[in-house]
Amino acid sequence: MGRKIMDTFVSNETSAGNKYRGLPSKRALMLNNRELKEKLAKDSVMKVSSRHELEKQFKSIEVSKEPAGLLFIDIDNFKEVNDEFGHGVGDKVLELVGERIINQVSKDILVGRWGGDEILVVFPKLEDALVLEERANEIRNTIKSKPFKMGDAVLLSRTLSIGAAIKEAGETTKDWLKRADASLYEAKETGRDKVVMAK
Q1: For residues 151 and 164, which has the higher predicted lDDT (pLDDT)?
Q2: Active-site position among 83, 117, 128, 181
Q3: pLDDT tens-digit map of 62-112
Q4: Are residues 98 and 7 in the same domain?
Q5: Are strands 160-166 and 154-156 parallel, antiparallel or unpaired?
Q6: Tens digit of pLDDT for each residue in 166-179?
Q7: Are 87 and 148 in contact (CB under 8 A)?
């Protein structure tokens, strides 16, 4: 009798083992979650922060009610790069632009891709419009001053149009972005390769 009970117990344990065989371990799930978070945090083309990460930063700033500066950046005539050289070269230009901007700012500044060739740079706790304008021109000049080398023969020069806005007290993120975007539009409509401060 005892032998039968033991055999049944072993059989049930084996069945349970078979049931869960092939499922990922706790460690594997943790690694998968970490990889997913990293994918959500980084833009796969530009290697800068993703839109998801930018939106998290905006929520944090809105909750904290602290001042902040924002640059809304567009690569001038970027469509020409894709049309003439293909999307592979276009993606490389995006990556190199992102890399230069990251190298131009301190580590507490968030650089992210908003969509297409639009880049946002968020300066937490910055409330001085003149300082924001200076930082914007530094970024603009670092892109303009040195062409991008694409292979052995192709050198691509790019310029940036930038809209800049300091977050006003009580202003929503939507309205803050709208003011920066309107300034970017003005920069593009009045000749490109310039910084326009939001009104």
Answers
A1: 164
A2: 117
A3: 999 999 999 999 999 999 999 998 999 999 999 999 999 999 999 999 999
A4: no
A5: unpaired
A6: 999 999 999 999 99
A7: no
CA dist 164 to 3, 64, 140, 190, Å? 80, 21, 12, 15
CATH number assigned to the domain comprising residue 170: 3.30.70.270
Yes or no: say if 117 and 74 are a contact pair by the CB < 8 Å rule. yes
User: How does 174-193 read in b/e, with b if 16+ C-beta sit within 10 Å?
Assistant: eebbebbbbbbebbbeeeee
Whether residues 174 and 137 share a domain: the answer is: yes
- Say which amino acid occupies 179: R
Is the whole-model pTM more than 0.70? yes
Structural domain of 62: 42-197
Query: How many domains in the chain?
Result: 2
Average pLDDT over residues 110-115: 96
Residue type, 4: K
Does 117 qualify as catalytic in the annotation? yes
